[in-house]
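Inverse folding, one chain.
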């Protein structure tokens, strides 16, 4: 679906003010994602989960994300992933997580690391509280 902005825009130039009333038609940005997650191994204390996700944006090219997670006793989590088809991907991303059950619910801490070409190292920290 394409749209055309409506109205007027005044811009200041060296020669004076200029009013724009004609705009070109543009497509609305949208993103279609489809993914699949599956357990490769599911035992009492160990679980390995895999995931695949296809990203199809209307204003950019498609990319494919691959990832995996190892879980030990539903307390310790180790994750790794890679995205194919993007300019910024340099190394696989990885992360760790801890889940601490409490009487009121659970506390969760997650850390993720991703190395981008232009941004450099990206660190993500998450602290979560689950109430039951």
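Residues assigned per position:
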């Amino acid at each position: 679906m394409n749209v055309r902005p409506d109205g007027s825009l005044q811009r200041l130039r060296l020669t004076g003010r200029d009013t724009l009333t004609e705009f070109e038609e543009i497509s609305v940005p949208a993103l279609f994602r489809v993914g699949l997650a599956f357990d490769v191994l599911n035992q009492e204390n160990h679980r390995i989960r895999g995931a695949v996700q296809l990203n199809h944006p209307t204003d950019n090219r498609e990319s494919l994300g691959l990832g995996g997670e190892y879980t030990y006793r539903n307390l310790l989590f180790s994750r790794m992933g890679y995205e194919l088809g993007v300019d910024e991907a340099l190394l696989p991303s990885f992360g760790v997580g801890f889940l601490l059950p409490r009487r009121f619910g659970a506390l969760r801490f997650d850390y993720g690391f991703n190395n981008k070409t232009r941004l450099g190292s990206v660190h993500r920290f998450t602290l979560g509280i689950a109430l039951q």
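The two ends are 44 Å apart (CA to CA). The chain is about 0% helix and 70% strand.
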